Amino acid sequence: MPGYTIAVANQKGGVGKTTTALSLGSSFALMGKKTLVLDLDPHACASIHLAFFPEKTQRTALDIFKAHSDISAVGKGPVYQDRTRSSFDFVPSSIHLAELDADLKDVPGKGLILKKWLGQVKKDYDVVIIDCPPQMGVILVNALVASDLVIIPTQTDFLALHGFKLIFDTMRLLNKALEKPIKYKVLATMYDRRAGACRRILNILRKKMGPRFFETVINTDTKFRESSAKGKVIHEYAPKSRGALEYLLLAKEIAKGL
């Protein structure tokens, strides 16, 4: 499916959302898929990870939303072409995305802006991945509505289950207005098999979610933190690490369902 769009979303921070978006993007690129990753989080963690510093970056995702009245004029302007063999095209974030709830308050169809823009550009890509903001608002709504699949990364601990409930409530609310329900699957991240509590939560999630739970589990790996410090995705920094191999497995698991 050309331009298969995946939103990585959870309304709790610190669950591996940005790591998942970047590592999955890199995995699909390594599989030979033309990939686009968008950073729609005003915190710009994915952008900073890739050395797109908000104060120095001229073209950003903000351009898409600012041009809502003439979306065709934006084109691929905010897209930066891939820079390395294992990379992907990228749309960096802007801290001013946080102001869009107020700026777009009275704009009709404000929840469909991203979907309209992707309708113009995703024909050039096999996969589009969106790193979503953690808070409910117009950006998260745009990302969820534009997606073919929502990945919900969650740590295997009890506190992470709260964010789980928030994102489900958001999707249920949107599904009342959408023609077809939002498809989603849960991804276990930062798993520590040595901890009994982690193993118990993982088993609970598997039983509760059934087929909506990925078989692939992302274990804790210090290489993620190290690669971030180097401004690289994990497949560039530590291609044989556990984390790199697990995200490749995840990409293959997703590809099987396309």
Q: How would you explain this protein's 3D organization?
A:
The model has no long low-confidence stretch (mean pLDDT 91). Helices cover 40% and strands 16% of the residues. Helix 1 packs across helix 11 and helix 5 packs across helix 6. The relative contact order is 0.20. With 258 residues, it is α/β, with parallel strands linked by helices. It is built from 11 helices and 7 strands. The longest helix has 16 residues. It has one domain: 3-Layer(aba) Sandwich (Rossmann fold), CATH 3.40.50.
Brief summary of the model shown:
The protein has 258 residues and is an alpha/beta fold.
Strand count: 7
Number of domains: 1
Helix content: 25-40%
**Judging from the principal axes of the Cα atoms, what is the shape?**
globular
> Span from first to last CA?
7 Å
Structural category: alpha/beta
Radius of gyration: 17 Å
Low-pLDDT stretches are none
The CATH class turns out to be: Alpha Beta
Largest sheet: 7 strands, parallel
CATH superfamily: P-loop containing nucleotide triphosphate hydrolases
CATH architecture: 3-Layer(aba) Sandwich
Q: State which percent range the strand residues make up.
A: 15-25%
Strands of the largest sheet, in order across it?
Answer: 3-2-4-1-5-6-7
Number of helices: 11
CATH topology heading = Rossmann fold
Secondary-structure element order, as H and E?
EHEHHEHHEHEHEHEHHH
Average pLDDT over all residues: 91
Task: Throw out a few tags for this protein.
alpha/beta, Rossmann fold, 258 residues
Write the layout of secondary structure elements.
Blueprint: E1 4-8, H1 17-30, E2 35-39, H2 45-49, H3 62-66, E3 89-91, H4 100-103, H5 113-121, E4 127-131, H6 138-146, E5 149-155, H7 160-175, E6 184-191, H8 196-209, E7 213-219, H9 222-229, H10 234-237, H11 242-256
Parallel strand pairs: 1-4, 1-5, 2-3, 2-4, 5-6, 6-7
Helix pairs in contact: 1-11, 5-6
